[in-house]
Structures
1.
Amino acid sequence: EAAVTQSPRNKVAVTGGKVTLSCNQTNNHNNMYWYRQDTGHGLRLIHYSYGAGSTEKGDIPDGYKASRPSQENFSLILELATPSQTSVYFCASGDPGQSSQNTLYFGAGTRLSVL
Amino acid sequence: GQQVQQSPASLVLQEGENAELQCNFSTSLNSMQWFYQRPEGSLVSLFYNPSGTKQSGRLTSTTVIKERRSSLHISSSQITDSGTYLCATGGNNKLTFGQGTVLSVIP
């Protein structure tokens, strides 16, 4: 079973502060993703990566940066956090070339509150 | 871009009843998947089903590409089936999710 670990699980930040959400996966997947989930919007893609050193913009990238320093780690960075970024953030990994299931494995989520 | 609509938005069942959840998408898909989100928030994959019918226990997924829809059938519902069911579609694992169906199964 694929393992995706997010940290922290809960975070309270101040407006204007910097927030870094971390994600680690142990199954050597090439692709990793950051989603946010809000009531009424479902899961929306923020940034994703096809491998170490690559980051791509998703559907709602404004206000976020991403970093993929290694195959295992993918971070989401909020340089200047705003209350509108209060949400639950999910990291996921998956590798369509590796598995016929072609599915995603999700972390447990990070609940972020920006005050 | 791709739009994914799920219905109903919420559903209450008595234990033992069946449910049919629907997912409609706006453009041709390369991938159709169903996920289950537990009440505490964690997400697990149920089906990868780009076409045809797949079954796993009491769950059956049917995708009809020409009609741009997929359904998830839950038979003999149990209280532990409660949670949110999400469908997602897209290509190269860049998925677009629907807003989900919140299922509550009561005794």
2.
Amino acid sequence: NAGVIQTPRHKVTGKGQEATLWCEPISGHSAVFWYRQTIVQGLEFLTYFRNQAPIDDSGMPKERFSAQMPNQSHSTLKIQSTQPQDSAVYLCASSPGGTGNTLYFGEGSRLIVV
Amino acid sequence: QQKVQQSPESLSVPEGGMASFNCTSSDRNFQYFWWYRQHSGEGPKALMSIFSDGDKKEGRFTAHLNKASLHVSLHIRDSQPSDSALYFCAASFNYGGSGNKLIFGTGTLLSVKP
């Protein structure tokens, strides 16, 4: 069974450009999560979907970040007008759903904004 | 804001030694706790979960939870160089739509010296 697949693994983008990150969750998992990891802030929750519906986006910077889950096999995280402080590893995770279920993470997408 | 404080920040143990990590949460609504491990260049992987007060042992790993003091710990006996990684505790709530969102601790970097 394949794990969570994230693409691209690495992305370098210029300041002010748009970046889109993709996630393919584990087949059959109903919940998809996005986290951001930096040295300074650690692992920060961004947003999550259950059965493709947005449930909680309390961690998302409101102005430039958006996430979608158009079907059960992929989710996207889009960052508009990227800034150097957006440089981070963006991690996607999926879960069978329900309270108390483990999250399974992908290997992450490293975004560098220059 | 919900927080999970983790200590120590870093830890070095000899091969075959015992490694111990501690976490304290700030919110009594946290009901479910996990320990995750992240090797360099990879996403975090769940080691074990603990939901009830007391000890839970899985092989060389033992977790302990005390909900009254909001404290959870992890102990690794007979540490191996392959255990060298970043260790996170994580907690989630038991309510409504965000019941499965994980709040991660700040992480402990473990180095096991051969």
3.
Amino acid sequence: NAGVTQTPKFRILKIGQSMTLQCAQDMNHNYMYWYRQDPGMGLKLIYYSVGAGITDKGEVPNGYNVSRSTTEDFPLRLELAAPSQTSVYFCASSYLADEKLFFGSGTQLSVL
Amino acid sequence: KQEVTQIPAALSVPEGENLVLNCSFTDSAIYNLQWFRQDPGKGLTSLLLIQSSQREQTSGRLNASLDKSSGRSTLYIAASQPGDSATYLCAVESGGYQKVTFGTGTKLQVIP
């Protein structure tokens, strides 16, 4: 089992560029999440999904978009990147709500 | 709004010592509390999850307790080892499923 796989691990973007962070899980989990982690701050939820075709906003969704066309994949799209989006991004999954979260290894993104 | 606090931000102990990490939260109406370990440049690994109806959970040398009425949880690590060096985060799920609030973590260093 690979668990939760995120790509890329590192990326540098210029202001105004766009990119997609990939996330895939092979545990047949229903719930998937995107978090960002800023230095000295707790993780913040960007978007989440409770199943294929269903997504909803988290605490800090502005500047991001997601889709969930399959159970396995949950890509995060950054449109018109801004320096405020410099962060470490984590994808996570769980089988159901109220259960353990499984995290990917993260994507470190710098917007310059 | 739920707030999660972890004090101290950093802790250094000699190998073999038993230690306690603290987590406090402001809203006692929680679904669960989860303790994670994060190694540098890596994702989070769930260590223990305590449901709101439970008082504690144990896994190997780790024991986590939950006191909802006082808004506190502790993670007890017995016979600490250098391999336990990492940042430990707690997170509470409250105010609706998928609403997980993370603390900023305690960075633990176990000195050989």
